[in-house]
Amino acid sequence: MPVNNAMLQELQIRKLEHLFRIIDFDHNGLLQKSDFQSIADNVAIFTGIIEDDDHDNLLREEGNMIWGFIQAYFQQPNLQNIDSKQWIEFMENFFFGADDEVLDQNITLIVNRLQSVFDKNKDQLISRLEFMSIFVSFRVEVRFANQCFKAMDLNGDGFISTDELVHAAMDFFKSNDPDALGNKLFGELGSSHFQSVKVQY
Ligand SMILES: [Ca+2]
Ligand SMILES: [Ca+2]
Ligand SMILES: [Ca+2]
Protein backbone atom coordinates (compact mmCIF):
# COMPACT_ATOMS: atom_id res chain seq x y z
CA MET A 1 0.00 0.00 0.00
CA PRO A 2 1.14 3.53 -0.78
CA VAL A 3 2.48 6.58 0.95
CA ASN A 4 3.96 7.52 4.21
CA ASN A 5 4.24 4.37 6.28
CA ALA A 6 7.64 5.39 7.54
CA MET A 7 6.11 8.37 9.27
CA LEU A 8 4.35 6.82 12.24
CA GLN A 9 6.51 6.55 15.31
CA GLU A 10 6.26 3.94 18.05
CA LEU A 11 4.24 6.17 20.38
CA GLN A 12 1.79 7.10 17.63
CA ILE A 13 1.27 3.42 16.88
CA ARG A 14 0.64 2.75 20.57
CA LYS A 15 -2.02 5.44 20.56
CA LEU A 16 -3.68 3.94 17.50
CA GLU A 17 -3.58 0.54 19.21
CA HIS A 18 -5.24 2.17 22.21
CA LEU A 19 -8.01 3.42 19.91
CA PHE A 20 -8.28 -0.06 18.42
CA ARG A 21 -8.92 -1.53 21.86
CA ILE A 22 -11.51 1.13 22.60
CA ILE A 23 -13.37 0.49 19.36
CA ASP A 24 -13.12 -3.30 19.74
CA PHE A 25 -16.37 -3.27 21.67
CA ASP A 26 -16.80 -7.05 21.95
CA HIS A 27 -13.14 -7.54 22.88
CA ASN A 28 -12.51 -10.22 20.29
CA GLY A 29 -9.21 -8.68 19.18
CA LEU A 30 -10.66 -7.68 15.81
CA LEU A 31 -12.66 -4.76 14.54
CA GLN A 32 -15.87 -5.56 12.73
CA LYS A 33 -18.92 -3.60 11.69
CA SER A 34 -20.80 -4.39 14.89
CA ASP A 35 -18.03 -2.79 17.00
CA PHE A 36 -18.60 0.55 15.27
CA GLN A 37 -22.35 0.20 15.66
CA SER A 38 -22.07 -0.71 19.35
CA ILE A 39 -19.80 2.24 20.10
CA ALA A 40 -22.21 4.53 18.27
CA ASP A 41 -25.15 3.13 20.24
CA ASN A 42 -23.24 3.51 23.50
CA VAL A 43 -22.43 7.14 22.75
CA ALA A 44 -26.07 7.79 21.84
CA ILE A 45 -27.28 6.20 25.08
CA PHE A 46 -24.87 7.96 27.43
CA THR A 47 -25.13 11.38 25.85
CA GLY A 48 -28.90 10.89 25.93
CA ILE A 49 -28.74 10.30 29.68
CA ILE A 50 -27.03 13.63 30.31
CA GLU A 51 -29.66 15.46 28.38
CA ASP A 52 -32.85 13.78 27.39
CA ASP A 53 -32.16 13.61 23.68
CA ASP A 54 -33.58 11.42 21.02
CA HIS A 55 -31.26 8.69 19.98
CA ASP A 56 -28.74 9.96 17.54
CA ASN A 57 -29.19 7.73 14.50
CA LEU A 58 -26.58 9.78 12.75
CA LEU A 59 -23.97 8.19 15.00
CA ARG A 60 -24.89 4.69 13.86
CA GLU A 61 -24.80 5.83 10.24
CA GLU A 62 -21.35 7.27 10.86
CA GLY A 63 -20.25 4.00 12.41
CA ASN A 64 -21.42 2.18 9.30
CA MET A 65 -19.73 4.77 7.13
CA ILE A 66 -16.36 4.27 8.82
CA TRP A 67 -16.68 0.53 8.32
CA GLY A 68 -17.47 1.25 4.66
CA PHE A 69 -14.26 3.30 4.38
CA ILE A 70 -12.31 0.37 5.80
CA GLN A 71 -13.87 -2.08 3.35
CA ALA A 72 -13.17 0.32 0.49
CA TYR A 73 -9.60 0.86 1.61
CA PHE A 74 -8.91 -2.88 1.61
CA GLN A 75 -10.93 -3.23 -1.59
CA GLN A 76 -13.00 -5.99 -0.03
CA PRO A 77 -16.72 -5.21 -0.02
CA ASN A 78 -17.35 -8.35 2.04
CA LEU A 79 -14.56 -7.78 4.52
CA GLN A 80 -15.78 -9.09 7.90
CA ASN A 81 -13.10 -7.85 10.26
CA ILE A 82 -9.62 -6.39 10.56
CA ASP A 83 -6.84 -6.97 13.07
CA SER A 84 -4.82 -4.25 14.75
CA LYS A 85 -2.12 -4.30 12.09
CA GLN A 86 -4.70 -3.68 9.39
CA TRP A 87 -6.25 -0.93 11.54
CA ILE A 88 -2.92 0.84 11.81
CA GLU A 89 -2.33 0.46 8.07
CA PHE A 90 -5.78 1.92 7.41
CA MET A 91 -5.26 4.84 9.77
CA GLU A 92 -1.78 5.51 8.44
CA ASN A 93 -2.90 5.71 4.84
CA PHE A 94 -6.50 6.83 5.09
CA PHE A 95 -6.65 9.03 8.18
CA PHE A 96 -3.11 10.36 8.21
CA GLY A 97 -3.18 10.56 4.44
CA ALA A 98 -0.53 11.74 2.08
CA ASP A 99 0.34 14.97 3.86
CA ASP A 100 -0.23 17.07 6.94
CA GLU A 101 -3.10 18.93 5.35
CA VAL A 102 -5.19 15.75 5.06
CA LEU A 103 -4.36 14.80 8.63
CA ASP A 104 -5.23 18.25 9.99
CA GLN A 105 -8.55 18.17 8.16
CA ASN A 106 -9.36 14.75 9.60
CA ILE A 107 -8.37 15.84 13.10
CA THR A 108 -10.60 18.90 12.72
CA LEU A 109 -13.45 16.62 11.68
CA ILE A 110 -13.00 14.53 14.82
CA VAL A 111 -12.86 17.62 17.04
CA ASN A 112 -16.02 19.02 15.46
CA ARG A 113 -17.78 15.72 15.91
CA LEU A 114 -16.68 15.32 19.53
CA GLN A 115 -17.98 18.81 20.22
CA SER A 116 -21.27 18.41 18.44
CA VAL A 117 -21.97 15.13 20.23
CA PHE A 118 -20.63 15.83 23.72
CA ASP A 119 -21.09 19.60 24.13
CA LYS A 120 -24.67 19.10 25.19
CA ASN A 121 -25.41 22.68 26.26
CA LYS A 122 -23.77 24.07 23.11
CA ASP A 123 -21.57 26.61 24.86
CA GLN A 124 -18.55 25.53 22.77
CA LEU A 125 -16.92 24.25 25.95
CA ILE A 126 -16.52 20.71 27.23
CA SER A 127 -17.37 20.68 30.91
CA ARG A 128 -16.13 18.09 33.36
CA LEU A 129 -19.43 16.22 33.11
CA GLU A 130 -19.45 16.35 29.32
CA PHE A 131 -15.88 15.06 29.32
CA MET A 132 -16.86 12.27 31.67
CA SER A 133 -19.53 11.23 29.21
CA ILE A 134 -16.86 10.81 26.51
CA PHE A 135 -15.07 8.38 28.80
CA VAL A 136 -18.21 6.52 29.80
CA SER A 137 -19.43 6.32 26.19
CA PHE A 138 -16.11 4.93 25.02
CA ARG A 139 -15.85 2.74 28.12
CA VAL A 140 -12.51 4.20 29.07
CA GLU A 141 -11.63 3.76 32.71
CA VAL A 142 -13.41 6.66 34.40
CA ARG A 143 -10.97 6.93 37.30
CA PHE A 144 -8.57 8.65 34.92
CA ALA A 145 -11.10 11.12 33.58
CA ASN A 146 -10.35 13.91 36.05
CA GLN A 147 -6.61 13.71 35.58
CA CYS A 148 -7.02 13.64 31.78
CA PHE A 149 -9.43 16.55 31.90
CA LYS A 150 -6.95 18.63 33.91
CA ALA A 151 -4.18 17.80 31.43
CA MET A 152 -6.27 19.08 28.55
CA ASP A 153 -7.63 22.18 30.30
CA LEU A 154 -4.54 24.22 29.51
CA ASN A 155 -5.70 27.51 31.03
CA GLY A 156 -7.22 25.80 34.05
CA ASP A 157 -10.64 27.45 33.79
CA GLY A 158 -12.49 24.17 34.34
CA PHE A 159 -13.59 23.79 30.72
CA ILE A 160 -12.02 22.44 27.56
CA SER A 161 -12.35 25.07 24.85
CA THR A 162 -12.33 24.34 21.13
CA ASP A 163 -8.69 25.42 20.94
CA GLU A 164 -7.78 23.19 23.86
CA LEU A 165 -9.59 20.27 22.26
CA VAL A 166 -7.82 20.86 18.94
CA HIS A 167 -4.53 21.04 20.82
CA ALA A 168 -5.28 17.74 22.56
CA ALA A 169 -6.34 16.00 19.34
CA MET A 170 -3.25 17.26 17.50
CA ASP A 171 -1.13 15.91 20.36
CA PHE A 172 -2.95 12.61 20.34
CA PHE A 173 -2.48 11.88 16.66
CA LYS A 174 0.71 13.74 15.84
CA SER A 175 2.95 13.96 18.86
CA ASN A 176 5.78 11.57 19.62
CA ASP A 177 6.41 13.23 22.94
CA PRO A 178 5.47 10.85 25.77
CA ASP A 179 4.69 13.90 27.93
CA ALA A 180 2.34 15.52 25.41
CA LEU A 181 -0.81 16.37 27.35
CA GLY A 182 -3.18 15.33 24.57
CA ASN A 183 -1.92 11.74 24.73
CA LYS A 184 -4.62 11.32 27.36
CA LEU A 185 -7.50 12.42 25.13
CA PHE A 186 -8.99 8.93 25.18
CA GLY A 187 -7.71 7.91 28.58
CA GLU A 188 -4.45 6.73 30.02
CA LEU A 189 -2.62 4.76 27.33
CA GLY A 190 -2.84 1.06 27.83
CA SER A 191 -4.75 1.41 31.06
CA SER A 192 -8.24 0.22 30.79
CA HIS A 193 -10.47 -2.62 31.74
CA PHE A 194 -9.86 -4.06 28.30
CA GLN A 195 -6.15 -4.22 28.98
CA SER A 196 -6.38 -7.80 30.16
CA VAL A 197 -8.02 -8.91 26.94
CA LYS A 198 -5.67 -10.72 24.65
CA VAL A 199 -5.14 -8.79 21.46
CA GLN A 200 -3.40 -10.54 18.63
CA TYR A 201 -0.74 -8.55 16.86
CA1 LIG B 1 -14.41 -6.68 17.85
CA1 LIG C 1 -20.65 22.44 27.06
CA1 LIG D 1 -9.83 25.68 29.54
TrEMBL record:
Residues 11-46, 140-175 form the EF-hand domain. It comes from the Bacteria. It holds the Pfam family EF-hand_5. InterPro entries: EF-hand-dom_pair, EF_Hand_1_Ca_BS, EF_hand_dom. This is EF-hand domain-containing protein. The lineage of its organism: Bacteria, Pseudomonadati, Bacteroidota, Cytophagia, Cytophagales.
